[in-house]
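Figure S7 source data.
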Amino acid sequence: MTQFDEARISKAILGAYHGKLAEHIVSDVIIVGAGPSGLVAAADLAAKGLKVVILEKRLTPGGGVWGGAMAMNEVVIQEEAMPILRELNVRTRNVEDGLYTADSIELAAALILKAVQAGAVILNMTTVEDLCIHDGTVRGVVINRTFGTTPLPIDPLTLMADAVIDGTGHETMLIEMLKRRGLLEGLPVADRLGDGPMNAVEGEKFVVDRVSEVYPGLWVCGMAVCATFGGPRMGPIFGGMLLSGRRVASLIAKA
Ligand code: 48F
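Tokens for the predicted 48F complex:
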């Protein structure tokens, strides 16, 4: 019989969790937000051998994938992103030429598993509340435990990395923090942050084409791209999100 008791269980959890946290006080890449774009970026970067940590404020990674559209748990994927679905072993149904549907729960689960098994570490219930900037370059992020209700006056920790990705979706949280400090002045971002009205065709292209390093050390992927540069929203078609994550990973790896 395996020998265990409550104290040994607690000690195992503390040892394992703090090991992960300590290992990622300094990473190659920090990804803020475990949505579809951030998860693809994490899997690709980790597969290239980079040390990657994803910080997710919610209990459940996966962002906007789970709910499909209007909580009908199916998403649409276009042909261009099908190589990613095949790598994930996610089953798809061809509805018309070049257009597929996938079970959003299967997709969310596969994205998470792939990122973690590639070597990325996800710290959930971890809210990023600020950026760490030295000499005009983003060097890391300021984190706190996600609070259930009103934030408590508890000081945060800071995690450091060579590159930080804002994958926080519509919230575009890190870009917002720069804007609030006037640090985006003179940079080619939208006057008012936030995505534009629905235009699925343009939005799917925009979210991939405009992936970039917005501020030294700070990159955007996914819906945060549209919110940063004023691109349209696109609703429950997810190919662009996946390709946006792939693109940011490839640009960071090159940089
Ligand atoms: O919004 P989200 O799924 O990001 P995405 O990769 O994908 C967008 C689509 O889901 C959907 C869409 C498709 O057409 O438009 O919206 O751009 O996931 C963003 C994740 O970031 C987390 C949030 O909980 C979500 O899981 N997040 C947001 N702010 C913070 C954060 C924060 N301050 N700290 C940590 N995580």
